[in-house]
Structure formats: structure tokens, C-alpha cells
Amino acid sequence: MKTFFFGIYFFFITLTTGLSQTIYTPNWESLDKRPIPTWFQNAKFGIFIHWGLYSVPAWSPKGTYAEWYQYWLDNKTLFGNGDFKGDEIYNYHQKIYGKDFTYMDFAPLFKAQDYNATEWADLFVKSGARYAVLTTKHHDGFALWDSKEASFHHRRPWNSMEIGAHRNLVEEFVKAIRKTPLKVGCYFSLREWNNPFYTTSTMPIYVEQHLYPQLKDLITKYKPDLIWADGPDNYDEEIWKTKEFFAWLYSSSEVKDSVVINDRWAKFKNGKHGDFYTSEYSSSNKKYDKPWEECRGMGFSFGYNKLEDIEDYAVPQALIHTLIKIVSQGGNLLLNIGPTAEGKIPPIMQERLLQIGEWLKVNGEGIYNTRPWKKNCQWSEGKRDWKSGEKYYVSGNAILKQTVNPEPGYATQEVFFTCKANNLYAILTNYPDKITLKDVKSTSHTIINLLGYPDKLRWEQKGQNLIVYLPQITFLKMPCKYAWTLKITNIQ
Questions:
Q1: Are 173 and 343 in contact (CB under 8 A)?
Q2: CA-to-CA distance for 295 and 74, rounded, in angstroms?
Q3: Residue 7 has pLDDT above 70, yes or no
Q4: pLDDT at position 444, please?
Q5: Cα–Cα–Cα angle for 127, 254, 48, nearest 5°?
Q6: Residue 75 in contact with residue 93, Cβ under 8 Å?
């Protein structure tokens, strides 16, 4: 039987001279030259969706990832913010489900009976997001589409068509998203915790006979605009056959000209590859040589966690400030939601998405299609080295200590900058009487507006600084909440 990778090389060998598209060969010198589709860097805001068998128990100690339930259960360990003994999930599972109930027994309970992909898509549009990424298969290997590889290699019904929901959840998602302006993203885990072939000695079998046939099936059926790989563990690009896959994806797949992929395809030896870099639950300033994306949940978990309370969720002001900060540094925010096992998005998550969407209706011009300016922010007076005291994952609300609620003696990031053409956008985290924008030089053609406010603003140039006087209006007439955008045209 011809393997998937033989097909790649066969394609290169038999390529006719009449084809005009660029052909990428399986080496980084060739692959890293592939142009990154511009839609991703223009999008700025996406929705991550963690949904699977782990959504049935939906339980993990605060500060940990609920979608890792199987791993915590089987290995009697736990990782995250907090001090844990390690057996918390195991003890909970024994108490609630009993000693004979395995993680695999959650599969028939994942029924998704209230799942309505059209309602999800409508909510994402209202949020102002430009793309949505669904976990088509997480580390437990359970597939949300009719993947024959999932069931064959796990030796049991292990996809949502054969057990539980008895529905093709990915297909429904893709069809609904395709009816909107949003791009379709598919998260796909490389690792599978309990796959019998996911061992050091059998990785070649796992990669060539399971992983890539399954991934190619996903790509061929649903033609995603974005593929979000995860979980390469300590296996390098030679084990994962990463270069060969990239060459096929970029050269001959049906999405070769439009697809965007992240950087988690292997433990790379010589830097990062892929179209964009990823970070997770972080708060540090970033500067990369290509597009990047920060992913985080509204709480501390990607999968829905019933233990999280209101104080564990980021407030809308914090989420909006996070988006602004990331965009000012040239990144995208991929904000996660965790639906229930029934397929409902928790109301607090719906509310947060709608609040972000309301803000973007007014201020989106300063977010979408922008690029970083010569500096990403302006600080107030004070120390700039405040750091969150959280152990591993930085909470969503931590940014407020850097923007509006500093500790004594610490500075705040009072303005974030983006730019588009010859226009500068200064996004304010507070609303003062006036703001002095340092090292911003106007011209005789400069006009300053507050997005969402009808009149031009008064301003003056004083040396190297531009002083802008904000209109003093009542709360009810404010164009938005949480942050305010100055559009400054024709700067030097």
C-alpha cells in the first residue's frame, strides 16, 4: 500500500512543467519562504472552542485545564496555578463515577443534544471575531467528525458519528461558519494519550498510518483556512515528518494558497516554523519576526470547568485591554470558550463575546487590518516591571494592574498605538480631560477624531508632543466603554 508520504514524493517527481503554482520542497529554506496569507494578520480577533469528552465531567481544580481530565485521572498528577497533591481528579472521579468507570465511558454521554452551529456562528459574528477554531480532536484522540482512523486505532467507537451525539459536529460547524464572513479554523492534536501506537518505538507507524491520513482526511473534507496543531511533545521534525507535510500542504493541497498554520508541529531544533507563532496565558510584551497569536480562556481553563466562579472570569474591560495590547504588538487574540457537553455556550461567555463585539463596532477601525507603530504603547510615570504573582497562567484580569489599577509606585500603559496607511490610532485605557501623546508629530493636514463621536477634536502641537483635548460628555453619550480610540490622520 502506498503511504501518504510516498504520495508526496510521487507528486514532486511527476510534476509537469506546465504547472504555474509555486512548489515547495521539504526543507526549511524553501518552506519558510512561503508567503503568509494576509487575512490572518488582518483578522486580529478569533474564537477558540474547546469541546469534547472532557466537557462531560467539566471538572478540574481552579487554576488547571479541565480538558486534561483524562491525563490527570490516569496519571494521578495535576499542573497549574495552585499547590496540588496530584490525586484530586482521581479522587473526584472515584467518588462521582466509581472505580469501574473509565474516561472512555464518557463517550456515550457526549450527546451534544443542544448544539446549534448556526447559533454559535451568529454569536461569533456579533463578537467581532474574524475566525473561529474548533477542537476537531484533542489529546484524548476523540474525533468530532466521521474519522475512521480514530475508531480503528483506538479499537472502539471513537468519533462523534459512531457514539454519543451520532452527529458530524465538525461538518455542522464548518457549514455554519461558511455562511458568515468568518474564516474556518481546525485545532488538531498531534499527541494522543491512549493510542496504542503513540509510543517511542511505534511513532513511525503512528505518524504515517494514523496521524497524517487522519489529518489529510480532515483537510480534504473541510478545507480549513487555519490549522492549529498542538501537542508535539519532545518528538522532533524528523519523527513528525513535518517538512514533508508542510511541502504537501503548501504545494498540492486544496488549501495551499489560503491556509495558515501555527508553530506547534514539532519540537523544532533550529527555531520556529509555520506561518505564525503562538503563546498561551501570558502577559509579557512580545516582538516577533512574523505574525503571532495569544490564546487564553476567559477563566483559567480552555475546556468548560464547573468549578470556576464569577471571580475566575475576566471582566470585559480586561478582555478588551488584552485585545488592544496584543494588537498593538502585531498579534491576534484567540479567545477561548468552553461549551457544555450538551453544546450550549455558557451565558457568561456569551455575554463577554457580545461586550467585545459592542466595543469593536465603534473601535474596529483601529484594530482590524492595522499594523504596529514605531512604539506599541505609552507609559505613565512609575516603575514598569510589575509582574503577576500567579504561578503559571496569568489571569485575564491581571492586565488591569498595567492599565487602570496599578500597584503603588507602578506605571500604567495609558495609550496603545496601531497604524494604518498614514493614520495613527491612539487607544486610551482611561478617559481624561486631555492626553499628551509623546513623540507624535502632526502636519498641516492632521485631523483628530474620537471614534464614535461626530465632531473633530481640538489639539495642539507642543514641541515633540501632541496634546489632544477630549470632549467632556455625559456617560450616556459616551461612544463606548472600557477604552477610547483617537484617529490621528496625516502624521509625520
A1: no
A2: 26
A3: no
A4: 93
A5: 25
A6: no
For the beta sheet containing 292-297, the strands, ordered from the edge strand earlier in sequence to the opposite edge, are 260-261, 226-230, 183-189, 131-137, 45-49, 331-337, 292-297, 277-280
pLDDT tens profile 95-132: 999 999 999 999 999 999 999 999 999 999 999 999 99
DSSP 305-335: -TT--GGGSPPHHHHHHHHHHHHHTTEEEEE
Instruction: Average the pLDDT over 182-188 and give the result.
Output: 98
Cell of 23: 512548489
pTM of the model: 0.95
Classify the C-alpha dihedral 184-189-190-194 as positive or negative.
negative
Helix 212-222 / helix 242-251 crossing angle, nearest 10 deg: 20
Distance (Å) of CA 317 to CA 323, 354, 429: 10, 13, 9
Q: Cα 145 to chain center, whole Å? A: 21
Instruction: Look at residue 288 and tell me whether its pLDDT is greater than 90.
Output: no
Dihedral sign from CA coordinates of 356, 358, 361, 365: negative
Residues in the chain: 492
| Three-state secondary-structure class, residue 229 | strand
**Domains in the chain, ordered, with CATH?**
22-366 (3.20.20.80), 377-488 (2.60.40.1180)
Sheet holding 458-462, edge to edge: 434-437, 465-469, 458-462
Nearest to 301 by CA among 132, 4, 54: 54
Tell me the average pLDDT of the chain.
Answer: 94
Q: Alpha carbon 76 to chain centroid distance?
A: 29
pLDDT category of residue 289 using cuts at 50, 70 and 90: confident
All three cell numbers of 473: 460628555
CA distances from 59 to 54, 64, 69, 289 (A): 8, 10, 8, 38
Instruction: Give me 214's grid cell.
Output: 487522519
